Amino acid sequence: MAITRRKITVVGAGFTGATTALMLAQKELGDVVLVDIPQLENPTKGKALDMLEASPVQGFDSSIVGTSSYEETEGSDLVIITAGIARKPGMSRDDLVNTNAGIMRSVCENIKVKCPNAYVLILSNPVDAMTYAAYESLGFPKNRVIGQSGVLDTARYCTFIAQELNVSVEDVRGFVLGGHGDDMVPLVRYSSVGGIPIDKLIPQDRIEAIVQRTRTGGGEIVNLLGNGSAYYAPAASLVQMAEAILKDKKRVLPAIALLEGEYGYDELFMGVPVLLGGDGIEKVFELELTAEEKAALDKSAQSVTNVINIVKGG
Ligand SMILES: NC(=O)C1=CN([C@@H]2O[C@H](COP(=O)(O)OP(=O)(O)OC[C@H]3O[C@@H](n4cnc5c(N)ncnc54)[C@H](O)[C@@H]3O)[C@@H](O)[C@H]2O)C=CC1
Ligand SMILES: O=C([O-])CC(=O)C(=O)O
């Protein structure tokens, strides 16, 4: 049988979805189907056509189509869900829970039927709880339902460390554990620059400021934009996760996974380091944490649990 191209569906053709679609095509990770609601069918088709018309200039051969029909998503290898409302200044991500849980369920009912074998990446907020909602609606195995938070949070953290030291971002390593909220846990002890632990390079008060800026990094962008939330770095993060799966790269990245005993939590979706490859989440890495780190993670886990309970009750 001839080798065929991968098919990637992106649900939600707003800021994050459209940016993700373009980046996926630019990297030729597959042919992209961009889906939004029927009321926005023409704008969605228009965005997809506009992106496609960039392909001769940029030299990519992925196709991009816009639609409001799930017929065209049939058999997708990967589905990325960005559908939902975004927050505005003064709101928390958790304020979006009821509206976006309804949207997530309706999207997943379609995906379940049309793309039963897909790996599914969730972006919509509050993302830990939305990953739970998707998992419940899809009924897919846990390795195929994956939330995006930690790649973005870690990218922000590494950006701020690189800025602080005036070094290349390529030499900065670190990661962020926990829920995608203001009590996420950037792990200073596991952060380094060119292999040197950051506490050897940056004074403690500056590290604390970087940790705090990372925690509120989404809100910083929301306040600057005024009418929506971040989309370039979120899209880049989704594309890195998509590439890890589609190319079976076996990356070690933070992602939202269903925890069943790991880190002492049960039936909880939250950000942890995972092995991301051709079978989705192939492994969850459990790190030893200090008492202080575990207490911070417990606080974050409690916040996520509270929002998941709203989804369960809704
Ligand atoms: N997890 C993360 O790290 C991040 C999460 N987000 C979240 O991603 C979501 C999307 O953000 P943006 O793209 O900026 O918002 P946006 O408002 O630009 O786009 C959302 C799109 O979803 C569409 N949509 C709504 N209901 C739909 C349905 N039933 N089916 C298909 N499409 C539907 C809307 O028509 C709109 O085009 C928000 O919930 C936001 O909070 C954004 C950035 C980072
Ligand atoms: O802050 C928001 O609402 C969007 C988001 O999750 C982020 O940029 O981290």
Describe the overall structure:
With 314 residues, the protein is an alpha/beta fold. It is 42% helix and 20% strand. It has ten helices and 14 strands. A hairpin with a 7-residue loop joins strand 8 (176-177) and strand 9. The chain binds 1,4-dihydronicotinamide adenine dinucleotide and oxaloacetate ion (OAA). The site of 1,4-dihydronicotinamide adenine dinucleotide has 35 residues, from helix 1 and helix 4. Keywords: NAD, Oxidoreductase, Tricarboxylic acid cycle. Residues 152-310 form the Lactate/malate dehydrogenase C-terminal domain. It catalyses: (S)-malate + NAD(+) = oxaloacetate + NADH + H(+); (S)-lactate + NAD(+) = pyruvate + NADH + H(+). NAD(+) binds at residues 12-17, 36, 100, 123-125. Catalyzes the reversible oxidation of malate to oxaloacetate.
Task: Classify the beta-strand content into a percent band.
Answer: 15-25%
Helix vs. strand class: alpha/beta
Spatial order of strands in the largest sheet: 3-2-1-4-5-6
Q: Count the E strands.
A: 14
Q: Averaging pLDDT over every residue, what do you get? A: 97
Hetero groups in this structure are: 1,4-dihydronicotinamide adenine dinucleotide, oxaloacetate ion
Global geometry: globular
Helical stretch tally: 10
The parts where pLDDT drops under 50 for at least 5 residues are: none
CA(first)-CA(last) distance: 46 Å
